[in-house]
TrEMBL record:
It comes from Wolfiporia cocos (strain MD-104) (Brown rot fungus). It holds the Pfam family Amidohydro_1. This is Metallo-dependent hydrolase. The keyword Transmembrane helix does not apply. The keyword Chaperone does not apply. Residues 57-388 form the Amidohydrolase-related domain. PANTHER family: AMINOHYDROLASE SSNA-RELATED, CHLOROHYDROLASE FAMILY PROTEIN.
Amino acid sequence: MPSYLLQGGIIATYRNVSNDASTFRADVLVEGSTITRIAEHIDPVPGIETINCEGKWVTPGMVDTHRNVQSALTPEEVRIGQLSGCLEALHSGVTTLLDHFHAATTVGHAEASLAAVIESGARVVWCPARQSGPTQVFPALEYANEEATCKWQLEKLHDWGSRDHGKLTPDGRVTLGLAYDLIGCGPASAHQAVFRYAREIPVQVITTHVVKANHILIMRDANILGPDVVLSHCNCLWDLNDPEDESWAAMRENACAIASTPVDELGMAHGNPVAMKAVQRGVKCGLGADCTSVNGRDNEEIHRKGAAAPQYNKYKCRDVFRLATLGGAEALNMQHLVGTIEVGKKADVVVFDANSANLAGIADPIAGITFHATDADVELVMVNGEIVKRDGKLIKADWGLVARELKQKADEVRERFPKEKLEAMWSEYYETFGPPLL
C-alpha cells in the first residue's frame, strides 16, 4: 500500500486528550493506512510520495452519523444510488458514514447496497434495517411478508457479521450495524430479543429514529439502551429543559449517542435540532446529512446549522467543527480510529485549498471550513490511507460512468413514478393516516 508525506500544510484538529481545537503548521507522514508521524518538518524519503500542502488546510475527515444513502427501488437502482451517494459524501470531505439502509427488503437489495458501499472507498458503518416493506398501503397498511422477512434478515445479519466479527472488509473499513425502527410496535420482549441477537454477532452500532415520538424511556425500561445505540434526530427532546429529565438522563447514563441532522430536521419540520442541548447535557453527539435529496448536499452547510438557534450564540464554530469530526467519531465509538489528526489514527484526511475564491481571505481554518468552505474547496480526500479524491476530482471510481448510469436509472424511476402519481399517493396517505410519526 502506498505511503504519503503531506508537507507544509496547516493542521486543524481536535485531540482525543484535549477538548479544544488546535491549528498548527506540520508535516504528516502516512504509512499504509495509519498516521505514523506528525512534526514541524519531516524530510522526504525515497519510495514515499510527497504531496505539497503549502497554502492548504489539513483536517480529519468528517463523520456523518446518520445518512439514508439510498431508498427502496430495484436492486440495480439501489447499487448505483448507493455508490453515487457514497462518492458524493467523499467529494465533500465526509470520510465516515453511518448508513441507515432502509431498503434491505430482499437479499438482492441488501447485497447490492453492501457491494456498492465496499466499492466506493468510504468508511461506512452499514446498518441494514430490520423491517419489511408493506404489501398493501390502502385502505390499511399490511405487512404480509413480515415473518419471512424477519427470518431471512436476521439470518443474513448473522452471516455478514460472523465472517470476521462484524468486519465487512478485511481492513475493517466497512463494518456491520443494525437499523431498527420497530420500538413502537409489539412487546418489549421482541425488541430485547433482536438487540441481544445483534449484540452477540456483534454489530458495531444499533441505530433507531427518535423524532416526534419519544421511545427513549421504552428502550430504557426494556434495558436495551447502551453505548452502541445511536438515536437519530431526537427533536422530541427540545422542550425537555429540566436538568434531571428522565430521557436525557437515560441517554447519558447508558452512554448513548444522538445523530443530529439540523438542515434535514428543519427542512422536513421534524422540530428544532438538539445537538447543542446534547453537548450541554454530556450526551455524545455527532452531525449527519440524513437525506441529501431533501436538504443541500453541502456538508459544510450542515455544520453551519449545527448550532442554528439564538440561545446557542455562546458557542463557537470550533464547537460545531468538533461535532462534525471527533464528536461524530465518539458517537460511533470510533474515536480511537478516526475524528482527529493524531499519530496512530487511521489516515482519514481531508485537504482544503485555502487559496480558493471561498477561502483565500480567511485566517482561521476552522472558521473557514465551518462557515465558508464548499465541496469545491476539497482538494484531496484520503480514507484508510488511500487517496479517493485528488486535485478536486474523485479517482476511486470513474465518475463519468457512474453519472451516466445514475442518470439512466433516475430517468427510469421518474418514468415509473411521475410527479403527479407521487403527489396523489402522498395526499391519499396523509388523508388516511395523518403525518408520519417516528
